[in-house]
Specification:
With about 100 residues, the protein is mostly beta strands. It has one domain: Rieske [2Fe-2S] iron-sulphur domain (Rieske Iron-sulfur Protein, 3-layer Sandwich). About 0% of the residues lie in helices and about 45% in strands. It has no helices and 11 strands. It starts with a strand and ends with a strand.
Length: about 100
């Protein structure tokens, strides 16, 4: 069973990210370049640094610290320096709000 938690307003433009407190922890909300919504872990698996200033390239998330890339849909690491993926969470839009499943 998925417990849904409010993640704030759905106010992100395509190609942007926002780090938010959800369910007692930090989660990164992202919109890929095509406008798709994603929720992923807010910490890079490579050096355990925050992804607050991550960039979006197509459907990939780029870590601002060492350039690790992750697939936004699956969390899979797409190349060095990260070899381990990051967690992904179900996301749904309810009106003008985002909800994350934890």
């Amino acid at each position: 069973m998925t417990n849904w938690h409010d993640a704030g307003p759905a106010d992100l433009a395509p190609g942007t990210t926002s780090c938010r407190d959800v369910g007692g922890g930090k989660r990164l909300i992202a919109r890929d370049s095509a406008g798709g919504w994603h929720a992923v872990a807010a910490v890079c698996s490579h050096a355990l640094l925050p992804l607050d200033a991550a960039r979006i390239r197509g459907a990939a998330l780029l870590c601002p610290h060492h350039g690790a890339r992750f697939d936004l849909a699956t969390g899979k690491a797409l190349g060095p320096p990260a070899w381990t993926g990051i967690a992904v969470y179900p996301l749904r839009l309810t009106g003008d709000r985002i909800e994350i499943g934890l």
